[in-house]
UniProtKB/TrEMBL annotation:
PROSITE patterns the record matches: PROKAR_LIPOPROTEIN (PS51257)
UniProt signal peptide: 1-23
Signal keyword on record: yes
Protein name as it appears in the record: Beta-lactamase family protein
SUPFAM superfamilies according to UniProt: beta-lactamase/transpeptidase-like (SSF56601)
Keywords, comma-separated and alphabetical: Signal
Keyword Signal belongs to the record: yes
Residue ranges of every copy of the Beta-lactamase-related domain listed in the record: 64-393
Top-level division of the source organism's lineage: Bacteria
Organism expressing this protein natively: Paraglaciecola chathamensis
Length: 515
């Protein structure tokens, strides 16, 4: 989830709530006509382009179908909310390339990490109705497992509040899930990193409470804690505490998918447009990545939080609970800011603009966002690994055409580069981590064409000054040398992929082995 600047204070939250927080629902403007809704939905089917634009150059706008084909994304489902009410939905493409069955409003996708705020919301509903200390050491709540001691044991606690805001210092960013036919571990095996788990043990290696670091491992620990306290499974709790109260009839935490949802589910696809082998992965870590849902259902969840936050009468959670969900728990005002499960977007005056979360499972990419003041927002779900890029383009279009959200195209200026300067960079670079691949640069006007087959083919990069280059998809490349006037030896792509120039590869490897 992208987020902007600062944090809203609890005082401001309470002041806002006191101004808006009467028991009756707010007065809504007249609902748009069906014709207007259709016109708005149709706006998303045209006018899409990569998120980087070049000043002075004409933008190559394309249709949604063209962009889906470009990214090998079979299907996309969108729901738009206005004034806290579902306004319209729009679908494009198919659930499965083989059957050609089209996506419809009820088609379910894996929601990926949007499972985290959904889990956090149901935990807060449980805590509203039952004794549960969010600030207690989870080892005082757990009965089926125990978090190993760490450097700060006895000084700083690993609490549910910190686990749900990614400030507990726990490890393991995310989970790949388990393909069909693979054994699925228990939560305890996941936390211990023991077979058949395919991720490392979840440990505490940062002082709890000192910084925000995203941790699906922490959410998994929170899931086990709640299940121990409630003596109830997450799938059962989720129906009772979240899905049924909010009318989320096309959602569930069952893994593999339940029979009542499987009759209309999307098939996941990889970045090349091939189906994920064995179909949708099974996620043992339900709270971190295991929810199935639709865009409409996910908007019902965030609308319920918003309504309660503003003091509107709901039969789900209280205003105090909602305000706690949307109160920042990160130790600084620097983005990203996280409440209980949700990422929170703020303006420069520390006022909350909106909240949401992104999601990524094997073959499924999603995004959820709702503006606090207007009640306008959207949910987008796709069944392709390149769905994130398509979602970014749709978010830009939503902001441009309907003024919903915060995503805007970035405009860059081309900086001329001499032939002599460009020649310093052209060549072949060898990458050994995270994959073994050769990156080949071929000269082009004001930049180069990059190939890293089979991962990247003929991607155009443009010079933006000082030896830095960008692609229209947001990727970036710069170069390093041993000294200012020496030959270029290293390519750095997207900040963390490093390639050694082929003619220097042997000497660099030899030097590394000596060190």
């Amino acid at each position: 989830m992208k987020s902007t600047t600062k944090l809203v204070s609890l005082t401001l939250s309470l002041c806002l709530a006191s101004l808006l927080g009467c028991a009756e629902p707010e007065t809504l403007p007249p609902s748009p006509s069906p014709a207007t809704e259709s016109q708005e939905a149709d706006l998303l089917k045209t006018g899409l382009a990569e998120r980087i634009r070049i000043e002075g150059q004409e933008v190559d706008f394309q249709s949604l179908e063209q962009r889906q084909a470009h990214y090998n994304v079979p299907g996309v489902s969108v729901a738009l909310m206005k004034n806290g009410q579902l306004a319209w939905t729009m679908q494009s493409g198919v659930k499965d390339f083989t059957t050609k069955l089209v996506i419809d409003e009820g088609t379910v996708f894996q929601a990926g990490s949007i499972s985290k705020p959904a889990f956090a919301a149901l935990l807060m509903k449980y805590r509203q109705d039952n004794p549960l200390d969010l600030n207690a050491d989870v080892n005082t709540l757990l009965t089926s497992w125990r978090l190993p001691e760490h450097k700060w044991t006895g000084q700083e606690v690993v609490s549910l509040r910190r686990l749900l805001s990614h400030t507990a210092g726990t490890t393991v960013h995310g989970f790949p899930g388990y393909a069909a036919g693979e054994p699925v571990p228990t939560l305890q095996q996941v936390l211990e990193g023991k077979a058949p788990a395919n991720t490392d043990a979840v440990v505490v290696d940062i002082q709890p409470g000192t910084q925000m670091r995203y941790s699906g491992g922490g959410t998994t620990l929170a899931q086990l804690t709640l299940q121990d306290v409630a003596n109830e499974s997450l799938p059962t709790m989720s129906q009772r505490l979240l899905f049924k109260p909010l009318g989320m009839t096309r959602s569930g935490f069952e893994q593999p998918i339940s029979s009542d949802l499987s009759n209309n589910m999307a098939t996941p696809y990889d970045g090349d447009g091939a189906p994920i082998k064995g179909g949708a992965h099974t996620y043992a870590t339900l709270a971190a990545a295991g929810m199935w849902s639709t865009p409409s259902d996910m908007l019902k969840m965030v609308s319920g939080v918003r309504s309660a936050y503003l003091g509107q009468k709901t039969d789900w959670i209280s205003q105090a609970t909602a305000q706690e969900i949307l109160t920042n728990n990160t130790p600084t005002n620097e983005a990203p800011n996280v409440g209980i499960g949700f990422f929170i977007t703020m303006d420069e005056n520390s006022e909350i603009l909106g909240f949401g979360h992104g999601g990524a499972d094997a073959g499924f990419m999603s995004q959820l966002y709702l503006e606090l003041d207007t009640g306008n927002g959207y949910a987008i779900m796709t069944n392709g690994n390149n769905g994130t890029q398509l979602i970014r383009e749709l978010e830009i279009r939503l902001k441009e055409a309907l003024d919903v959200g915060y995503s805007e195209a970035e405009v860059k200026t081309l900086v001329p580069i001499s032939q002599k300067e460009l020649d310093k960079y052209i060549g072949t670079y060898v990458v050994t981590n995270p994959v073994n691949v050769e990156i080949v640069l071929r000269e082009a006007k004001n930049g180069f064409v990059l190939n890293a087959l089979p991962y990247i083919e003929n991607e155009r990069y443009f010079h933006e000054g000082e030896g830095r280059f960008f692609a229209k998809n947001g990727s970036s490349v710069h170069f390093e040398s041993d000294d200012e006037n020496g030959p270029v030896k290293t390519l750095v792509m997207d900040g963390n992929i490093r390639g050694v120039r082929k003619e220097f590869e042997t000497s660099v490897l030899a030097q590394t082995s000596k060190e």
